[in-house]
Amino acid sequence: MRERSIHLPIVFHFHQPVDNFEWVFEDVYKKSYEPLIDNIYQFEDIKITLHFSGNLLEWFLNHKPEFVDKIKIMAKRGQIEIIGGGYYEPIFAIIPYRDKIAQMKKLSDLIKKKFGLDVKGAWLSERVWEPNYPSFLNDVGLKYVIVDDNHFRSTGITEEGTLYSYITEDEGKTLRIFPINEELRYLTPWKPTYLSIDYLNKISDEKGDRVALLISDAEKMGVWGTTHQICYVEGQGHKDGDNGKPFIPAFFEQIRNNTWIKSITLSEYMEKFPAKGLIYLPTASYDKMEEWALPTPIRKNFKRIRKNLKEDITKSEIYQFLKGGFWRYFLVKYPESNNMHKKMIYVRNKLISTEEKLLKVEDEQFISLLLKKINKAWDEIYKAQCNDCYWHGLFGGVYLQFLRFSVYTHLINTEKIIDEINTLINPKLKSYIYITPTDFIKDSKTEYLIESDLLNIYINPNDAGTIFELDYKPKSYNLLNTLTRWPEAYHDSKKLESKEVLVDRFRRSLLRLRFLHEDVTLEQLQADQYYDFGDFVDEGYRVTSSEKEGKIAIIEMERIGSIKDPDTDDRNPVRITKDIYVEDNEIEVIIRINFNEIPGKEKMLNRIVNKLNVAVDIPFFFNGDTTKFKWESKQVDLEDDIKIELLEPFQYIGHHFKAYDETYDLNFEIKLLSKSDKIKINKFPIIAYAFTDEGYKEIYQGINVTPFLKLSKNLEFHLKLEIF
User: Fold this and answer.
1) Which of 619, 618, 651 is closest to 635 using CA atoms?
2) Does 649 lie in the same domain as 620?
3) Residue 458: CA atoms inside 13 Å, Cβ hemisphere, count?
4) Which of 104, 183, 266, 646 has a beta carbon 3.0–4.6 Å from 629's, enabling a disulfide?
5) 246 with 102, same domain?
6) What's this model's pTM, rounded to 2 decimal places?
């Protein structure tokens, strides 16, 4: 009778988002990366598969030569395999084919150059899978991928069925698929090592072709919670079974001592065993991600249903077919995520158009210079495709404002390189301004993009005639990198009962108009809890003109709507126009509010203009050190009388506001011109309440300046914005 056995490939995934803080890299290196590789290095007979995102691997190569040398030695002795994927950890589903291929080749080439290893497997960022993946992965010579066992459930594959590898195809191109073992993922390193060994023994068999794939983020083995102590500190490992021995060496010793556990790399397993069979997987990610992608009201129901089904063993057959949302829905759930993605697509299309101009250049030396700039621009695009801030779940995602800033920085860098190339080809293009009407956000409606050598101003007439992106190109800085305080399913948590969570009803965009009672307080405004008497806050405007006059770009919009009487349900018709003028680094907005005077309804109109204010949203985002933000107003003496921080709520009467981001040496100035000298200016921070791996956190997302102006039957006011 043959001995029972099980193959145990172990994969560690090393990743840091593009432009994460240097201190984070160092901290994670000391707590996790260095001790993990040291332990693997000491256990020569334990086979390990490693994955590094390209930007992190670059950091190791530049800063940690001894760490890299150990990986090289392990590669030479055949102990490790290194798998590839997208260089900057993109979600393949949302980037174009050309970029998929380029990012994978870039990482595979670096691994081959530095470690002498041929890359055969692909890491899928956030394990997002779509059925067309075999085609493009095959095109770069990759042979296998790793996905969650969750991907297999709705195909009818049982838990036992996930103890094998499978093969799938698209357009006749095949790809091997390895399911990740969920049980091992939850046991390590949280439970004593003997529980993992007992589980492996339970699923082993005499035939000897079973595989239990253990995969873990490298950061999980040292950074999460108390895992550094559990994994590496003598005496602080699990007492039960391991006698306090650190988890990682204890686990490797268990594998070494139990010879029926076959340590193997994924490529070695593929060479040894054929696939169990052909399979076709639906679009999927890991189960938590599929829950997070759902719209908030649906997510609440899904979480409750899934919990009930999973805990009820009589309903396990039903649970197998319970499936959450589709990863791409994050681009709908969070307009800010969609904004970044569509800007990436828009800018790369501009880059492709610029590439095509090189066909008309004949000077080879000149072409070589331009190609270097083109290649640099493509790398900026690839960096902007890093997945971390395009979604939201336990690990922060879109709520991490500095990562959103990184995306915009790299995309604006690309635009600046395009400007350089165009100027080299045609020196007359050094200074320019133009207007592009386009369906930028891909919702079948037209947005208007004003672009110059200094600014990008993206206008959405369909969303209340607002500006949703404002780029200052000299600093590669998007001042509208704000995040709306969206309602989240976890806001219902009992842990938050004692704390009021502020959420917004509409996206935090520039120039949104609200018609409020004069008694609305700063606290109500900050909480977005008040009644709006108008129907202008989220309705569409009609563009009546878009034109250039010399160096000035002009967009004119109008909407005919109504405002409710404060005392009755009657409404008075009103016409609002917004004229936006852009020249150099200045934006001037002229807003006109003209009421129809209805015979016999004079008292209603008088009540409206006497009791209501119009409020204008002016959100903006600073990315620097918040302790170095400064602000001033010509109407407030901050030095002698009071000292109010930029992020503290404040209200004053005036017509001027100026803020300064010292880290980036950037000024943002607002001037209001109106016949009324009593403009009430409200200032408050935009703070989102998010649940992350560190628990509930208040995360700064920007500042909102909201002037209140008294209404009149024919009100006109000018808003001037300057960035320098």
Assistant:
1) 651
2) yes
3) 22
4) 646
5) yes
6) 0.96
> What type of residue is 491?
H
Which of 429, 461, 479 terminates a domain? The answer is 429
Query: Cα–Cα distance between 246 and 358 in angstroms, integer?
Result: 59
339 and 324, same domain (yes or no):
no
Distance separating alpha carbons of residues 513 and 92, to the nearest angstrom: 39
Neighbours of 643 (CB within 10 A): 8
Q: Which residues contact 588 (CB under 8 A, 6 or more apart)?
A: 580, 581, 718, 719, 720, 721
Tell whether 473 is covered by a domain. no
Euclidean distance between the first and final Cα of the chain, in Å?
A: 80
Residue 486: partners with Cβ closer than 8 Å, 6 or more residues away: 296, 333, 334, 503, 504, 688
310-343 burial by CB neighbour count: b if 16+ within 10 A, else e?
eeeeeeeeebbebbbbbbbbbbebbbbbbbbbbb
β 695-710/680-692 pair status: antiparallel
User: Same structural domain for residues 590 and 677?
Assistant: yes
441, part of any domain: no
CA–CA separation, 189 vs 238, rounded Å?
9
Residue 695 corresponds to which tokens in the numbers above? 């628990």
- Burial bucket for residue 467 (CB in 10 Å: 0-12, 13-18, 19+): buried
CB 34 within 8 A of CB 67: yes
How confident is the model over 94-150, as pLDDT tens digits? 999 999 999 999 999 999 999 999 999 999 999 999 999 999 999 999 999 999 988
pLDDT digits (tens, 9 = 90+) for 520-553: 999 999 999 999 999 999 999 999 999 999 999 9
Residue 674, token pair as written in the block: 């109106």
Distance CA 188, CA 237 (A): 12
Q: Which uninterrupted H or E stretch holds 149?
A: none
Residue whose structure tokens are 């209501």 = 612
Q: Which of 380, 395, 429 is the last residue of a domain?
A: 429
Query: Which residues span the domain enclosing 577?
Result: 489-717
